[in-house]
Design goal:
Blueprint (H helix, E strand, L loop, with lengths): L2 H21 L5 E6 L5 E6 H26 L12 H4 L5 H34 L9 H25 L3
Antiparallel strand pairs: 1-2
Helix pairs in contact: 1-2, 1-4, 2-4, 4-5
């Protein structure tokens, strides 16, 4: 089992523990939408909130686990990278597919970690009297944005050069 697979499994376990532990603690109707300042301005049924959580985790799992498996079978026309003709040539295709798989797995892990953190903050907000998010929500969003930018930059620069 590769490192991103282990981290992904750990994050799924955390999400499952969150769901099991907090489901019984939350009221039937919870704050689920917040303004930019963290004030609740929309609500949903607790069950809908957790269904959304698992749908979003499913998308992250698809990105982290299923997409990397499919990359190798995609035609070159469906893969958008710099210097495509070079990197998807017969001599380089296996190496390229391996790089893309690894990057997609790690991006899926980053997305899952972001989701676990965001949903935890919403759960926490619903267990406090103010029912509002803390400013650390913006830190989490900023951190995920930075990770995404670095991930994109590394991927683009890797395929921008021709060995």
């Amino acid at each position: 089992m590769e490192a991103p697979d282990i981290v992904q499994s750990f994050l799924v376990m955390i999400a499952a523990i969150q769901t099991i532990y907090y489901y019984k603690l939350l009221p039937p109707q919870i704050a689920s939408h917040f303004t930019a300042t963290g004030v609740a301005n929309g609500s949903s049924a607790k069950s809908s909130f957790f269904i959304l959580y698992w749908v979003m985790m499913g998308v992250a799992i698809l990105i982290s686990a299923v997409v990397p498996l499919l990359i190798g079978s995609l035609p070159a026309s469906m893969i958008n990278i710099p210097n495509k003709d070079y990197w998807l040539s017969d001599a380089k295709r296996d190496e390229t597919v391996g790089i893309l798989r690894a990057h997609m797995k790690w991006f899926g892990v980053a997305l899952m970690a972001f989701l676990v953190a965001c949903f935890q903050m919403v759960i926490h907000a619903n267990l406090t009297p103010s029912r509002s998010l803390t400013n650390s929500f913006w830190v989490i969003i900023g951190a995920f944005a930075v990770v995404t930018i670095i991930w994109t930059f590394r991927l683009a620069t890797r395929f921008s050069r021709v060995d």
